[in-house]
Structures are given as C-alpha cells and as structure tokens.
Design goal:
The protein contains 11 helices and no strands. With about 325 residues, it is mostly helical. The protein folds into 2 domains: about 150 residues, Ferritin (Up-down Bundle), CATH 1.20.1260.10; about 160 residues, no CATH class.
Length: about 325
C-alpha cells in the first residue's frame, strides 16, 4: 500500500497527525504507569505526569485545529506516512521492564520532537508554527525526563546521558538494520542452498546458487531498508547507510554457509566435507544472531536462541527434504 511522503502533508494533516500521536503516546505512558504503580511508585508517578502532559498537548493541538478547520479530523494516522515507525503493540508493551520502558519513552519523545520540528518548518500559519516549536521544545525536555527514570531516584550525570543517547542511536542506526539483514541472510538462504546441495551433490553448482541467493537477498533487503523511511522523524539515521548495512549483513549471512562449497568436486567426499563445514557455520551464525538480540535488543538469551535456532533448523531441514525429494 502506497504511503504519503511527509512533503505531501497539508497543515490540516500535520495537526491531525499530531493530535493522534499525542493521544496514542498518552495511552502508552498511562499503561506504563499502571503496570509500575505497585512496585515502582516513583516511576509510575513520572509516567502519570507524562501521560497527563501528552493529553494536555493533544487539547492544545485540537483547539488550534478547531479554530482553523472545524471539529472533524481527517482519517490519517502515522502508518499512512513514510518515515514513521509503528509503536509497539500493546501485548509487547506488557512484557517490558522498567529500563525497557524508559528506553521506549526516550525514543518516543525523540521522534515526537523531530516530528514537531519538521512540521513547524512546513506550516505557514504563525500561531500553529509557534505551537509546534513550543511542543518540540517540551518533547526534548520529556526525552531527558524519560532518561532520568530509575528505580532508586538516581541522578544521572551529563556523561551518562550522552552515553545512553549514543547507545540508543547506535542500536537504531546500525544494530537494528544489521541484525535484520543478518537474520534474513542467514535463515532465508538456508533452504535454497541446501536444497541445491542435496539435489545436485555438486559443490560448484551449490556455490553458484548460494552466491546468487545471498547477493540477491542483500540487494533486496538493502533497498527495502533504505526506502522504509528517511530517518528524519525516527532518528534512525541516513536511509542509504542503513540500507547498505542491512544489505551487506544480509549478503554476509548467506555467504557464510555458501563458501564451504568452494571445496573442489575433485576432492574425495567433497560434497560431505563442504556440507559438514556449512552446517557448523550455520550453527555459529544462528548463535551469533541470538547473542546480538540478547545484547542489544533486550531479549533473554535463551528465548532468543530458541526462536532463532528453532526457526533456522526448520528452514535447514526443509531445504534438505526438498533437495532430497
């Protein structure tokens, strides 16, 4: 489904998006507060206050909208516009711990501030532009407030805040696209490579299939990531850099278990030697993906390992069964 470019939005669209965004964010913060209230009352109070402020911002925006365009909002949401990231589904928010909630809030506030700054540049109405600029400044303050959320009322130093921001940007701009590419390259190429291997028992032909699958998947994933959003509203950085990282890691993920099939067919038991080495490399790739998810994506290692390894093994077996048919 085609989505609107940010440049195509009217002032009416921008205000409607802002109103919907503030409403959605207030509900997310309120859900965080309700979950934390019993065990972390101080943090719950902060999220309560942030939810109240988001609703207040919604009211300011709606008052400005009514003054210019009347009561009814156009049916436009974040998902209709290129550059917006979808918020976590409610069922995923239910599993977040306090630190993950804080990180989520930081990202939400950063994206909201960037949206208001970009929207203010497009608005010609002085009153609306001033309101959006004011909201951008407030959201920047919220980003800092979210970064100060801790269980024991700890005060964070400027260096700590800067390090947290750097880490968040590193995850958004490099780890996420790289991990998506590595997962796709490592898992999606298993079936065609091992199907070709067991169908032909020819190392060279299998290598060519693996090379084509890896490079093709890398190009496809690279363009998909680069075109997903321009990074201006989400803080995800330059889209072509993300696309390059994603495409490169996709290709690497597939090439890893393709290279063993360079063992010459003239070598005794060449097919089984190459297949054994490729199988070991597949296990290393899957465990590496699980470790990265645990290290940077706040996923328990055993859970990540089970999800990745189980999925990879199923695709691996599928390729063998098809190739042996």
């Amino acid at each position: 489904m085609a989505r609107l470019a940010f440049s195509e939005l009217t002032e009416r669209d921008l205000l409607a998006l802002a109103i919907g965004g503030e409403e959605e964010d207030s509900r997310i913060y309120q859900s965080f507060a309700d979950r934390l209230r019993e065990s972390f009352p101080h943090s719950a109070n902060i999220f309560d206050a942030m939810a109240i402020e988001e609703r207040e911002h919604r009211d300011w925006l709606y008052a400005s909208y009514r003054e210019r365009f009347g009561e009814f909002l156009p049916p436009i949401v974040r998902e209709d516009v290129k550059g917006f990231l979808k918020r976590r589904p409610v069922w995923l928010n239910e599993s977040l711990n306090l630190d993950q909630m804080r990180q989520t809030a930081e990202i939400m506030e950063m994206q909201a501030a960037q949206f208001y700054e970009k929207a203010a540049e497009k608005c010609t109405d002085l009153g609306v532009r001033q309101l959006l600029v004011r909201l951008a400044e407030i959201e920047r303050g919220h980003e800092q407030k979210a970064g100060e959320l801790t269980e024991a009322h700890r005060d964070s130093t400027a260096a700590t805040e800067e390090e947290a921001t750097r880490r968040r940007m590193f995850v958004l701009q490099y780890v996420q696209p790289g991990l998506a590419g590595l997962m796709d390259g490592s898992v999606s190429t298993l079936a065609p490579i091992f199907a070709a291997a067991f169908a032909t028992h020819s190392n060279w032909e299998t290598f060519l299939v693996g090379l084509a699958a890896s490079i093709g998947a890398g190009i496809s994933m690279g363009f998909a990531e680069a075109l997903s959003d321009d990074g201006s509203l989400t803080g995800r950085g330059d889209p072509w850099m993300r696309g390059f990282i994603c495409g490169l890691m996709t290709t690497i993920g597939g090439i890893g278990h393709t290279l063993p099939y360079l063992v010459p067919d003239s070598v005794p038991n060449a097919f089984w030697i190459a297949t054994s080495i490729a199988s070991v490399i597949v296990l290393v790739e899957l465990w590496a993906i699980a470790w990265i998810r645990a290290r940077y994506m706040d996923t328990p290692f055993l859970q990540a390992a089970f999800q990745v390894v189980a999925g990879g093994v199923l695709v691996f077996i599928t390729g063998i069964l098809i190739g042996s048919a």
